[in-house]
Amino acid sequence: MTTPVHTTPARRPEPLTPALAALLTRTALIERGGRSFIAEAQALAPAERIALTTRAEALAAALAPYTDEARIQSRVVALRLVMPSATGGESLEDRAMTLRLYARALARFPEWAVGEACARFIDGRAGSGRFAPTPAELAAVCEALALPLHEERARILALTDAEVEREVPEAERMRVAAGFARLLGEIRTTSIMPGAAR
User: Fold this and answer.
1) Closest by alpha carbon to 104, among 83, 134, 60?
2) Count of CB atoms within 10 A of residue 83's CB?
3) Cα separation, 52 vs 24, whole angstroms
4) At CA 146, angle to CA 143 and CA 151, rounded to 5?
5) What is the largest distance, in Å, between two alpha-carbon atoms of the chain?
């Protein structure tokens, strides 16, 4: 699956609805042999599957990298206008190179995450408040903002891709167990008889 790329800014998705949050919480995955299963009693109803798939698509769109380098650079310029650089005065060439480095470090993030990360540095929720963040520091905050959405999407995809494990009724289990017991008895009888004939 390819990652969508946006040339227009994607918005941060709406919070998860209580119904979908409850569905994600109540549905347990069973991992066995490298495959994922859902118990038959917890199998997704068609409407639940559609809602989860729609949510996963919205998350993928909201997490798509933003390709407008100029817009990302404008966010960084605004940040650096209100926060001094730790390196002091820079030439125009140095500033242009610095902006390209920021754009490269932030290219894998959606525009809303870049904007939110810049806002957090400006209002003091991130960083020391003394100097503008480095590209790596800004990228780390973007990553932290996007991570819960990546995790939510991964959980949704795991549920929608899981196989339904059929629950075997107790009567059928007892019938199969009795059949195995009979077979085991027959194997023991036939393995004893050849030895008894000697």
Assistant:
1) 134
2) 18
3) 9
4) 110
5) 101
Burial, 129: exposed, middle or buried (Cβ in 10 Å; 0-12, 13-18, 19+)?
exposed
In angstroms, rounded to a whole number, what is the distance separating the alpha carbons of residues 130 and 87?
12
Number of C-beta neighbours around residue 50 at 10 A: 12
pLDDT in 10s for each residue of the chain, 198 residues: 555 554 556 788 889 899 999 988 888 888 888 888 888 888 888 999 999 999 999 999 999 998 788 888 888 888 888 877 766 666 778 878 888 888 999 999 998 999 999 999 988 888 877 788 989 999 999 999 999 999 999 999 999 988 888 776 777 778 888 888 888 888 877 766 555 554
The rounded distance, in Å, linking the Cα atoms of 76 and 169 is 62
Task: Find residue 35's DSSP bridge partners.
Answer: 32
Number of residues that make up the chain: 198
Integer Cα distance of 79 and 140 in angstroms: 16
Identify which of 19, 42, 17 has the alpha carbon closest to the alpha carbon of residue 29.
Answer: 42
* Helical segments of the chain, H only: 18-26, 46-63, 69-82, 92-106, 111-122, 135-161, 170-196
Element (H, E) at 30: strand 29-32
Between CA 102 and CA 198 the distance in angstroms is 87
Report how far residue 194's alpha carbon sits from residue 198's, in angstroms, rounded to the nearest whole number.
7
Q: Please name the helix (run of DSSP H) or strand (run of DSSP E) that holds residue 36, with its range, or none.
A: strand 35-39
